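Q: Sequence in, structure out?
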Amino acid sequence: MQKTFKGIGVSPGIVIGKAHLLNREIEAIPKYYIGEDEKEKEIKRFQEAINLSISQLKSIKERFSEAIGQEHVYIFEAKILMLQDEMIYKKVTEKITTEKMNTEWALTESIGELIKIFSGFDDEYLKERRTDVSNLGKRILANLMGFEHESISDLKEEAIVIAHDIAPSDTAQMHKEKVIAFATDIGGKTSHTAIMARCLEIPAVVGLEDVTSYIKTGDRIIVDGNSGEVLVNPDEETYKIYLNKQLEYNSLQKNLYKLKDLPAETADGYRVNLTANIELSKEIDAVLDHGADGIGLYRTEFLFLNRKTLPSEEEQFENYKTVAKKIYPLPAVLRTLDLGGDKFLSHLDYPEEMNPAMGLRAIRFCLDQPWIFRTQLRAILRASVYGNLKIMYPMISGIKELTLANAILEECKEELRKEEKPFNEQIPVGIMIEVPTAALTADILAKEVNFFSIGTNDLIQYSLAIDRVNEKVAYLYDPLHPAILRLIRNIVTAAKKEKIPVGLCGEMGGDPLYSLILVGLGINELSMNPGSILNIKKLIRSITLEEAKKVADHVLSLDTSKEIENYLNEEIKIKLYNKVILN
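A: Exactly. Output:
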């Protein structure tokens, strides 16, 4: 019987094929109490299982580092560090010695407690680290019990991989010829699984909750990475519908690639730069393959995560140099650290914050810890001679923070001059506008920077006073709210007055209907997921600037987001969107 599961589409594409269920769950875990004379033996068994797990991860890292790129090697190094850390070891050995549990039981209880701790974090990235703990626990348990690890690389024929979760060690072994798509019970857009799926361009849906309890190996399934749906054993009519959808999607993608080397220019000659948002330099190949005009947002914080020590200036320099050289002569905007103090607990002694989203994060964190900020700025400056790099400060709320950040930048420049280390003296410096105060004082800020980039994800969240990852208020997250559109107009007006470019790097930029409004408002650059670029390019090349302006003007005249949504869906989508995307 046909059944549909709804999850989160993290890598686009429509795939129809047979399922291969990765069943790693060990159902019968031995649980018994041990005697005093058995404690030492159990601890030794545990240490041996950890050592074997470390050896396995090192082997996988070495075997696949070339295929997945050095940027992904940190994922394995982080797992190895977690195994070497006291976090797991101390919990398990305490249960063995004080509660006299056998090792398998002690491990299972300890992993469960750690997962509960990580689940309690408000931060989405930290919350998803519970899956890392869970995967490590499963690996240690399997080694304790002598179970063989089923490898994705052992697949004999192409299949859609179904799993509760897919560990980085598994994702690294995926080959597009065999793994044509995958779907998991858990995960989110920022999980390692999602990042690797996008990098490898394998259609994927995560967060399906209980898909593994329903699907069996050999079942015919459909994975729609665009909509986030997985259909199990579709009936013949549904199968034919999705077969046509797949053909249409693949045909559209093929036709879109014809636009790769053409500019994103309206029919009446208005040029819009379409750039990409990325986390890893490995993604630059996809950026170039999709005809981007550069990198509009390079999230440098991914170099800092999942490790015990902060990256050195030299390590950062090499990373940024790679970005500069690979994308050259196109530009790359490097956003300085956009992390909160709570994410540096493994490096620094920071108290837990009640509301991290509005606490010591991004530029506030950097100004509070100038030695970290200074190291990053020096690395970016040194790398700037190898390409066309730009610096962007996140979460600037006013002129004071901008002045302080620029003062540190100038100090770094002076240090490098004295050390006779070359850098681009004229490196452009801009800010991400994602706080309402910055949007309202954009006229003041525009006098002090070389460019603006609007971060709509946070701008919407802060302007409407909602937590976009809180399910109970997520419905209030509204990109079409009249206040948001007026803030964007205000930012664009200020930028034009000072003759500086203004871009946008939130989710709005990759949506065809939203991008139409944004072009009409005067946005010069839209930065998005690489996979959305050609779609938006086709839209822009199919309209005139005057058409876009008329849409934007009419939208600004409406009082509610509901009126705006109705206007877009009932008039614009029919008249323009269908013609552009489907023809």
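The chain has a mean pLDDT of 86.
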